[in-house]
Specification:
Elements (H helix, E strand, L loop, with lengths): L1 E7 L5 H14 L3 E8 L5 H5 L7 E6 L5 H11 L4 E5 L3 E3 L4 H6 L7 E3 L2 E2 L10 H11 L3 H4 L11 E5 H4 L14 H11 L5 E2 L4 E3 L5 H21 L3 H6 L2 H11 L3 H21 L4 H18 L6
Parallel strand pairs: 1-2, 1-4, 2-3, 6-9, 7-10
Antiparallel strand pairs: 4-8, 5-10, 6-8
Length: 303
């Protein structure tokens, strides 16, 4: 019935897997838990011991494949008609997590459970990622269902295998960012609507603001790369808020002054985000400035 697919990179998944296993056994469903370590440097010994549990299979990659390829590999190794994907740095917070998904399987082809974050802030230098998650990613199911395929996330979702077989994750998207946005776009283009439910996982990520900014820059480069290769460019732009904003700036002929202002103030923005206050308004301005700078430097026509 259900293949639970978890790619692992430098994270202890024992508590997560044992709780998923407990709930699946309690539901008396046919299931498997597939774990693939993507060339981690930590926790391999402790995670490999999870094969002591029934229906758990563990693999190790000698070479890091990345976020898209690891998910495709998990599907290759799976055997059941429904696939449950989640990030490894998560925690199950509902004792009916598996049941909540199982009751929806016969009615929907793609189901997203959503995010949760701890109300307690992390240490200060990690706070921007936490603040972004609570303000941007955490939304009710009813709110997410108003625009169901917008900003699709692979953090916590179920998909029917027959649907996934038509799509797969695009392995040309390298590094961090927007492989899930592209997958959500592909779902929409194929006529599949994501159905959102209240079934969140707790995102336990702790990442320094400096590293989160670097990841965001990589994600923006991926966003532009996807734009260059995608056929329906205008529709792609309309589906991404950041791209729409920058196109509007360009139409108003403000791109050059915006870029110059960003070039001058970029060090101050990074300092403020890391050491003062994790302002999302400032963070959005930083993303727009970085995007304008990137397309200018690489002579990319965004319109």
């Amino acid at each position: 019935m259900l293949s639970i697919c978890i790619g692992i990179y430098n994270w202890d998944v024992n508590l997560l897997v044992r709780e998923l296993h407990r709930q699946a056994v309690e539901e008396a469903i046919d299931f498997e838990i597939l774990l693939i370590d993507d060339a981690s440097t930590f926790y391999k010994d402790i995670n490999s011991q999870l094969t002591e549990l029934s229906h758990v299979t563990y693999f190790e990659n000698k070479k890091n494949l990345g976020r898209s390829a690891i998910r495709n590999l998990l599907v290759e190794k799976s055997k059941f008609p429904y696939l449950l994907f989640m990030d490894c740095d998560t925690e199950v917070i509902s004792n009916q997590y598996i049941k909540n998904y199982c009751r929806e399987l016969s009615q929907h082809t793609v189901i997203s459970g959503g995010y949760a974050y701890s109300p307690e802030p992390p240490p200060y230098f990690y706070r921007l990622r936490w603040h972004y998650g609570r303000k941007v990613e955490v939304k009710s199911a009813s709110e997410r269902n108003k625009n169901p395929n917008f900003s699709f996330s692979t953090f916590n979702f179920v998909i029917k295998r027959s649907v996934f077989d038509h799509l797969h994750f695009d392995e040309t998207v390298q590094g961090y960012g927007h492989e899930d946005t592209l997958f959500g776009w592909a779902l929409q283009q194929q006529g599949f609507t994501v159905y959102h439910v209240e079934n969140p996982l707790l995102h336990k990520v702790e990442i320094k603001t400096s590293q989160f900014i670097k990841q965001t820059e990589q994600a923006i480069r991926n966003l532009v790369s996807i734009y260059q290769n995608i056929e329906k460019k205008e529709e792609w732009i309309k589906s991404i808020s950041l791209l729409k904003f920058v196109v509007k700036i360009k139409k108003l002929q403000l791109a050059t002054p915006f870029r110059l202002f960003f070039w001058i103030t970029k060090p101050f923005f990074k300092f403020f985000l890391q050491f003062c206050y994790p302002s999302l308004l400032l963070f959005n301005f930083y993303k727009a400035g970085y995007l304008i700078q990137h397309i200018k430097k690489n002579k990319i026509c965004l319109r």
